[in-house]
């Protein structure tokens, strides 16, 4: 049976999302995709090697088809954070954050992949915002936006409160618009 790499990676992502890094196992993954464990190890030598692939897939789905700078900054910013929020609501948790809590210095490849994942999110949002405000302000707003969205995810996962995510999106948009307006007055 031939199993595509993409199937393995997307299935691993759902296992990490539902069970966390430490709770997901290569046995679980092999069973879920219908492979023998030895066949899975040929493609990925260990669970840690899956983390960069899982996070790269997630980044590609979020940012891969975006043409930065082709639209007004606010339209682009809103589109991206609404996409992130919709994904977090739909999945009930962030795979990157879930992996962040499961990786450590003992799993340096996974830890570095998680760091790169969140850095890519912050950099992408900052690049949109920095078109209309100073880079340091854009970076702070991008950081705050991600913190709000990730924090709201806890309320989605624990209580099913989707309104927390809607408020996080609204507050992030308002903060960015206010910073842009303040900058245009200078």
UniProtKB/TrEMBL annotation:
<keyword id="KW-0804">Transcription</keyword>
<dbReference type="Pfam" id="PF00440">
    <property type="entry name" value="TetR_N"/>
</dbReference>
<keyword id="KW-0805">Transcription regulation</keyword>
<dbReference type="InterPro" id="IPR001647">
    <property type="entry name" value="HTH_TetR"/>
</dbReference>
<dbReference type="InterPro" id="IPR009057">
    <property type="entry name" value="Homeodomain-like_sf"/>
</dbReference>
<keyword id="KW-0238">DNA-binding</keyword>
<protein>
    <submittedName>
        <fullName>TetR/AcrR family transcriptional repressor of nem operon</fullName>
    </submittedName>
</protein>
<feature type="domain" description="HTH tetR-type">
    <location>
        <begin position="2"/>
        <end position="62"/>
    </location>
</feature>
<feature type="DNA-binding region" description="H-T-H motif">
    <location>
        <begin position="25"/>
        <end position="44"/>
    </location>
</feature>
